[in-house]
Amino acid sequence: MQFHYQNPTHILFGQGQIANINRIISPNQKVLLLFGGGSIKRNGIYQQVEQALTGYSWLEFGGVEPNPTKQTLDNAIALARSEQVDFILAVGGGSVIDGAKYVAAGACFEGDGWDIVTGKHKVSDALSLGVVLTLPATGSESNCGAVISNTDTQDKLSFRSPYVQPVFAVLDPDVMKSLPTHQLINGMVDAWVHVCEQYLTWPQGAMVQDGYAEALLKTLLQLGGSFNNRDSDEWRANLMFTANQALNGLIGSGVAHDWATHALGHQLTALYGTDHGRTLAIIQPALLRHQLDFKRAKLEQLGRNVFGLEASGELAGRTIDAIEDFFQSLGVATVLTQEERNGQDKSQAVDALVTQLQKNAMDALGENHSIDLEASREIFNAALQ
Length: 385
Ligand code: NZQ
Ligand code: ZN
What we know:
By secondary structure, this protein is of the alpha/beta class. The protein has helices spanning about 40, 45-50, 70-80, 95-105, 115-120, 180-200, 205-225, 235-245, 260-270, 275-290, 290-305, 315-330, 345-360, 375-385, and strands at about 10-15, 30-35, 60, 85-90, 130-135, 145-150, 155-160, 170. It binds 5,6-dihydroxy-NADP (NZQ) and zinc ion (ZN).
């Protein structure tokens, strides 16, 4: 086990914590508040932020869309530059936060921001960034990754840089009160798959990472089982902290990672606009069945320690069935229908998805690099109706 680990994001957890952002943002800093389609203006979060920013010099940029695009965000970069902004405050879900990371880095780079996403430009500076999280799901509020879409090329790609790690993140579970149920569920599925991408590989004897990953998965199962209690403070706080811990770097330290479910899922979003969480529920069961031989030991461990399954018979296969049942119990489909593909037939869709992977050189995915384009084709074939 060999790793460097630090998570410098200051977490402000609990009700009423939005009021404390002015303890962290320096009063001399000019702030750009970045937000999405306007839910924050309807649920009172904007007003709390406005109150906390009393006395600051600040301006706003709204309209960051789900699966944020370079095309929209480049306008925010231009604004940040012309207004000589020092600090980006992202108020939203993963899309707004990821968008803010792109803006923070793009404002300090003369070239085309898309070069940051493709890796052509390595980020060497960025504006400071803070977060008020409104949707627990991605973990983006305390990690250094961002996923950006390009509508010209239909690409959805990610970049990582320590320069865009948020300085602070407010996690106030009350923000979840206005979330549509399907977004709440998307968040549960996303957090589940984040843990799996870092846990479901091969046994590496990493007892702390495995044990903590299993605790997070068990919590998600329990929250799914008590979904009718989702209006309680306790339920909300537990989901918010679980989703945060699932992708803040800790459980992924010193172990192999997979991330193929995400890579294939991103292509569904890029071509059909499918919500991120939904793409994962569609891909994961098919991918796990395809990769069962590589993942058998960890699937068995998950089956025993998280689902409490008996050790007899095809335990690994039964564990995958249990994961699929979990998604379905939340009302999440595990196949992509033709209707969701705007009527496109299956073979055309699979071709288009594989072409996307090929274009972006995603031809050796997974912890063993065993998911080549042919394997991806087989997985898409199993995941599409
Ligand atoms: O646009 P607004 O008005 O904010 O509405 C949003 C949006 O329509 C709404 N919403 C958010 N908080 C709300 C709310 N509605 C009512 N009340 C609230 N409190 O929810 C909708 C979806 O928001 P979005 O930010 O798109 O969702 P999510 O947090 O699931 O983020 C998804 C994006 O994050 C990326 C995904 O690929 C996708 O682009 N990811 C980022 C990761 C990272 N940076 O580490 C990892 C993830 O695997 C993921 O790939
Ligand atoms: Zn995700």
